[in-house]
Write a structure and sequence with these properties.
mainly alpha, about 45% helix, binds glutamic acid, 4 domains, Glutamyl-tRNA Synthetase, domain 3, single chain, elongated, Rossmann fold
């Protein structure tokens, strides 16, 4: 059976790192098995859903390279829910209730006060047809609950948490439909998972108790439940649930110079003890993706680590992938690729290339040198002027200077770097020198 996974965001806000991790893991799971990854827009809540969030979700997935193999949206599937609803009503698995939020709240308080778990007491189940007719006559519309079968213990083998067991009598019958006819998320989700042939539901551990109820919904719908796996929550580097993580999304990370490949590489491993593998190709991460490696402890998202992974990614990015982000003059000059490859090992973020490009183009303002060093640099200018520039000029220049001056190590290299770049460290001079060019090299050395 082909693996089918889905990412099912509600378009009521922007994706944050936690959602992105869920999307990525579903994508990886599908890729790993040559299966399909679906995007399902859970927009049954018309009041809170907004079209611009749907567009943003698609755009964010596109930026991350997690293109879905299909897209569905719940607001276009109400007929399907209506049919399943009618079947479940006929089968006696859905029942009408009228309690207000305040009444339910009071019941819960009383139960808690008596040391009892706050489980819905099913009092509406006792209503007769005459009672319902009276409610209807009074203009009181019902909401609907799913009747959990207390005789069927709920078990599943969770892909991350291992064997799970729930006593349905310890759960409230979930409300699946509001009095205004609108749907809560649980039942449409189960109906869709069946209809879309979803084989694996991978989501956050905040859904564990929903899964318990949904397993009975699948059975009531006449379907075999999919495999379930629940990931530990994401926490900040300080180990706590952080507000920042709940709002940190693609836009902010992109503005901070984070490349999609870095976010993908880090999130692919977050929650496992596997080392981060800064691969450029997300599909290559799929082979080693293993739900069994995920632990139950909260997964720490450390922004400093993300920037380190970003540097490792930038060091691997080919010129073609970054050309549009580099200074136009650097790309147009014909030596863009050589410049990029020379500069890249020094970058944590692509936009820093512009700083090195300014160093290459000049003018630079080197420090003041002492007389002896000035003499050395004058000599260097003379040697540079006579070199065959087409063949490894830095090796030729330093080789000749070493032989003629007896300088070595720092004394040989540092004044040259300082005179040519005005800095003490930076990209490999062997890469920079051809980019600075012979005339300019001679000029900078002579001027120092
Ligand atoms: N729309 C639900 C959510 O965002 C989907 C949960 C699920 O994956 O089933 O929480």
């Amino acid at each position: 059976m082909t693996t089918v996974t889905r990412f099912a965001p509600s378009p009521t806000g922007m994706l944050h790192v936690g959602n992105i991790r869920t999307a990525l893991h579903n994508w990886l799971l599908a890729k790993q098995h040559g299966g399909r990854f679906l995007l399902r827009i859970d927009d049954t809540d018309a009041a809170r859903s907004a079209e611009h969030f749907v567009d943003a979700i698609r755009a964010d997935l596109g930026w991350l390279g997690l293109d879905p193999d299909g897209e569905e949206r719940q607001s276009l599937r109400f007929d399907l829910y209506e049919t399943a609803f009618a079947r479940l009503v006929a089968a006696g698995r859905l029942y009408r209730c009228y309690e207000t939020a305040q009444e339910l709240d009071l019941k819960r308080k009383v139960q808690l006060g008596r040391g009892l778990p706050p489980i819905y007491d099913r009092s509406s189940l006792a209503l007769t047809e005459a009672d319902h007719a009276a409610k209807a006559a009074a203009g009181d519309a019902p909401h609907w609950r799913f009747l959990l079968d207390h005789a069927q213990p709920i078990t599943w083998d969770d892909g991350i948490r291992g064997p799970q067991q729930f006593d349905p009598a310890q759960l409230s019958d979930p409300v699946v439909r509001r009095a205004d006819g609108s749907w809560l998320y649980m039942l449409p989700s189960a109906i869709d998972d069946v209809a879309m042939g979803v084989t694996d539901v991978l989501r956050g551990e905040d859904h564990v108790s929903n899964t318990a109820s949904q397993i009975q919904m699948f059975t009531a719908l006449g379907a075999k439940p999919p495999r379930f796996a629940h990931e530990a929550l994401l926490v900040g580097s300080e180990g706590k649930l952080s507000k920042r993580l709940g709002s940190l999304g693609v836009a902010e990370l992109r503005d901070a110079g984070i490349e999609p490949e870095a976010l993908v590489a880090l999130l692919a491993r977050l929650g496992t003890s596997d080392p981060v593998d800064p691969k450029l190709d997300a599909a290559a991460l799929a082979d080693s993706f293993d739900l069994g490696h995920f632990g139950r402890a909260p997964a720490r998202f450390d922004e400093a680590e993300l920037h380190r992974v970003n540097a490792a990614i930038v060091h691997r990015l080919p010129f073609a992938r970054v050309a549009h982000k580099l200074p136009a003059e650097m790309v147009a000059g014909g030596f863009g690729e050589a410049a990029w490859e020379g500069i890249r090992p020094n970058l944590a973020h692509i936009d820093e290339a512009a700083d090195w490009w300014r160093v290459i183009r000049g003018p630079v303002t080197p420090p003041a040198f002492d007389t002896e060093t000035q003499g050395y640099l004058t000599k260097a200018a003379q040697v540079a002027a006579t070199l065959d520039w087409s063949d490894a000029p830095w090796a030729a220049l330093t080789g000749a200077l070493k032989a003629s001056t007896g300088r070595k190590g720092k004394g040989l290299f540092l004044p040259l770097r300082q005179a040519l770049t005005a800095l003490d460290h930076g990209p490999d001079m062997a890469a920079l020198l051809p980019l600075i060019g012979q005339d300019e090299t001679v000029r900078r050395l002579a001027a120092a």
